[in-house]
Every structure is written in C-alpha cells, then in structure tokens.
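cron nightly-structures :: item 1 of 1
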Amino acid sequence: MVATYESRRPALPDRHGIGTWLRERTSGLVALAVVIGVGAGLGAIVFRWLVQSFTRLLSGTADYSVAGGAAHPWLPALGPWFVLVTPVIAGLVYGPLVQRFAPEARGHGVPEVMYAVAEHGGRIPAKVSFVKALASALCIGSGGSVGREGPIVQIGSALGSSLGRRVRLPESRLRVLVACGAAGGIAATFNAPLTGPFFAMELILSSFAVDSFAAVVVASVTASVIGRAVLGNEAFLELPKLSLTGSHEYLLIVLLGVLAGALGIGFSRVLYLVEDLCDRLWRGPEWLRPAVGGLLVGGILLVLPEMYGVGYPVLQNAIGGKYAVAFLLLLVVGKMLATSLTIGVGGSGGVFAPSLFIGGMAGTAFGAVVHELMPGATAAPGVYGMIGMGAAFAGAARAPITAVIVLFELTGEYSIILPLMAAIVIATLVSRAMSKGTIYTLKLRRRGVDLEASRATWPLTSRGVHGVVQPLPEALRAEAELSDAAQQLALSGYGVLPVVDPDGEYRGCVTTRAVAQALGAQRLEPGGEDPRRLTGDLAELPPLITDRATLAEALDALASAPGGALPVLDESGRELSGWLTHRRVLGALREVPAS
C-alpha cells in the first residue's frame, strides 16, 4: 500500500525561527538596532572615558587647549616643552598597534566606513572597534588636533557589522546595521539623537529608505538614552542667546556662506596636500611614523597650545567674543595645519570637529569685522561664528541636512535656524561648484574608488521587488503524481514551480530536473516501491523572498535558486503573492535612468 502525502510529509526547515525573523523581518531589524544602540552607547562612554583619561595622564589637565601653555604638574621642570614629548610617546604605542592589528584604523575613519558599505557590503572586521578606540584616544589625549566623531563612527559601525555577520544578514541589511552603529556612536558621543540618524543616512548610506531610517533612528535613540544616563543631558556648547538684528543681515549671511563653503573645500585640499607631502618624505617603517611625526605636531602645540586635542573650549571662547580678529584667523590656519599634520603622520581621529572649529573661528572673525563696520546694524560676532560652523562643515562634507541638525543639537540654539539654513545651502552649492569630491570621498577617490559610480548600482538596494513581480503561475499540488507535475512544468514555461499542500499552504518548490530524475528512477526500477512518487516529496525550500525585499536581496536569492525563478511571499512568509525571474529583475534595472 502506498502511503499518502499527508502521512509522510517531509520535515522542512523552520521558516519562522528566530534566525529567520532577524534576517527577514522589519521587526527583527529593529530588534538588532536596539542591541547595536546599546553597544554603541556603551562604546561611546568608554571611548570618551579613554580620551579624558589619556588627556589627564599626558597633559595633567582636563583639556590642555585652554590651559594657556602651562607645565605638566608631574614635570614642572619642563615647562610647556613637555608637549613635544607626549605625541611621540603616544605614537610609539598606537603606531605599532594600528600597523599590526588594523591598518584601516589609521586616519579619519568615516571614509573607511563609507568604502566598506559601498564596496564590501558593510563588512568591517570586529577588531577595528578596539584598535580604533585605543589609537584615537591616545592620539587625541596626547594632543593630536582631531575630532572624536570619526573614531566613534568607525567603532559603532564595526560593532554593527560584526553583529550583522554573526546572524548572517544579507548585504542590504548589513549596510543598515553599519549605519545604525554609526548613528548610535554619534548620538551618544555628542548627545545628539537627531544628528546621528541624519549623519548615517546622508553620509554612510546616502539613502533615506523608510525601513533603514526606522532602524537607524531606533539605534540612535537607544544609544542616546544610554549616553545621557552616564554623560548627562547638557548641550555640547553652552552659549548665550543669539539672533540676527534684522532681515538685512541675510546679505551678509549669503556672503558668509560663500566664504565658509570655499573654506571647507580649502581645508580638504590642505589636508590631502599635507598627507601627500608626508607620504613623499617618509621612508621609514609605518609603525614609527606617528612617533616621528609627533615631534612636528608637538612643535605646533608648543607655539599654539589651543590646538591640543578636539578644542571645543577654545571654540566656545571664540564664539563668546574672547579673541581678537587676528588671533581668530591664526587659529583657523593653525587648526588646518595641526589637523592635517596629525592625520598625515599617521594619527587617528576625525575631521568633523576640526571643520566646525575652523568655521567657527572664521565666522566669528567675519562677524567681528562687519560688526566693527556696522555696529548698530549687525548681530554679535558669535552669531556669525555659529553659522560659520555649520557652513564650513557643509562645504567640507557636503551634508547640508546633517550640518543644520548638528548645529542645533550641539548648541541648543534655535533662534538662528533660518540664516543657518541659508548659509549652509550656499556653502554646499559653492562646494559642489569648486570640487567633485568631499573631505570624506576625496580620500577614496585618491585610491581610485568612486563612490558615486558605485552608488549608480544602488537601485538594487533602494528599489523593492513589489514593483517587478509577475502573476503567480499555477502551483503544483503536493499530492499530485510526478507525471502530472512533469506535464504542468512543461506547459508553464518555467524550470521550477511552487508547491502547495492540500490546505493551500506553501511547501516549497519543485524543479523540472528533480521531477525528471525521480521519473527516471521509477523507470529503472519498475518493480520497486519508490518513496518519492508524489510531487510534495520533491519540494525544497528556496531562499525566502517577501514582497518587502529589495532587488539586491532578490538577485542574491535568484543566484542560488534552481530554475532561475522564485516565488514571492507576503510579509508573514506563509502566503504566495507573486513570481520573480532573472529577466524581470534585469528588465527593471534597464528602466532606471542613468545618473
């Protein structure tokens, strides 16, 4: 007696386990975003503690940039000359560390994350988190004139990438988790839960897809809660109430936007000019380069101690009107050189804070000049300083949305949002007219990597399959004889068809090849009892594609699917909703207009 299909239904892999949920459901992606937010928040806390600890250890103060060139309390005999030694000592520690374990931890950090997302599907080695945290904390703590945002972006992104690879996410979702890590790190470090998501979406993903944005926001909020619980909830810069005196000042704001945009591009070019010069001059081992170059960094710190570390207290003093115009301009030039040299000799740190610093100094100097010329008709110089911060960053990074949001969150000042937006838009347009690349993408262009060209293929990740699916062909019945299945497959025009059980539930797919092989086995053994004589016994589960999948995920699945076609299921993964083939996906890509 031949057993019925129901009595010997094969045990198929579980489509509804936790691994599948994490990999294929929006709710699973959000759950991972929460985990990454917690990790990024804790990572930001540890990183800030490391920076503060190394700063106190190596300079003897909480922030040497406003110490006025004082001596180290442990080494009073050296006076201010100790700053020549601290970058060398730190370089001897983090130089070999970076060279041995994670060379990608050298430099700003953000370009490396952008490259990993665009070219490597978001794959970043886990060890980068640890090496970057130590190297950058040592570099900043010893006087390196760089920011904290680049390191924390790379630290958080490596965490997101490691978790995503651990649960075997497809590349499209792995990229999102990398952005979640970046957003969480920025949000917790700067107490800026809005800046984190916009930084990640605008610079890392260059996309504002709804599912991605939701996950990135969740990671940012989670990291901010963790960060605020430990670091507090104060605005990053404490500034007096500032505003314009009238609408006539918008003409000056436009001029400031032009100047700040050009200054942002100028900073980018100086940065890579100094880096090229360091590359040409250095002939020793790479691990020794930060220590030898540290002597030059120390020389700048000896002359201009305001360049020590990130320099936010100096920025606050400048916007508060405590410096003369000539000194503000000296700080602009000094910061450009100090940051460029720190990175050029192999240091580790970001350029986000230096670009804000440069714009703040230049904007305040501009405001001081116009206020001197028109004292009753212009606002305080600090207003122009704040606007210059955002405009210079927009000119350097060409990220206008992030520039607006970050200035609001770092200062807590809403009164200048309209002139700030105007200046940032002008600066972005000037930047685009003056340079094809940004301070982040120029580094990759110099390596022969064009992110814009890479993103030309990103319709795969930004477009869903729901617009290209075909009507579902008639499904095979699991209880059907193989001869009936062979005939139905032959008439369908496909090499594969879905299979449903007597209750109409999807059970997998059967290919023409599998049916042919089973029929051939029956003919070879006509007297034997074949345990695979029903169509349902041949059903195998292909890669799962739901109607919320992207074209990139669909192509990945089609590449490993027999028969060149796949069923598309609804979001629950239980009901069939359409049919997808290679031809339909490639046809959809041909319809995407060239950029």
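cron nightly-structures :: done
DSSP finds 24 helices and five strands in the chain.
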